[in-house]
Design a protein that fits this description.
CATH class: Alpha Beta
Number of strands: 7
Structural class: alpha+beta
Radius of gyration: 14 Å
Number of domains: 1
Mean pLDDT: 91
Strand order of the largest sheet: 2-1-7-4-5
Strand content: 25-35%
Helix content: 10-25%
Number of helices: 3
Shape: globular
CATH architecture: Roll
CATH topology: Ubiquitin-like (UB roll)
CATH superfamily: Beta-grasp domain
Length: 111
Amino acid sequence: MKTAVMSSIKFVKEEKEVVFALGANLRERALENKIDIYTLKGKLTNCGGYGQCGTCVVEIVEGMENLSPRTAFEQRKLKKKPDSYRLACQATVNGSVTVATKPKLKDKSKR
């Protein structure tokens, strides 16, 4: 019998830590644990986690190396955003990460 390897996602603003099995989708774990990742606009226009709208942007504070690489859609959608920004629906978590939800969508070209 195989035992799932567990890790955690810390949500900074919510002061909540979620334990999960490796390979989990960041958006799904957040929503299952009542973490609100969407702004008002995102709540009204999100695509349901299919990677089409770009409304589930989060900032990875620690543990970026524990996420799957950015997808082609993320590369296009987040091209002017800091490298620490990810779309929660596209990120597979393979180790502990610390996340800030609803980051200010600053443009890295204006730094």
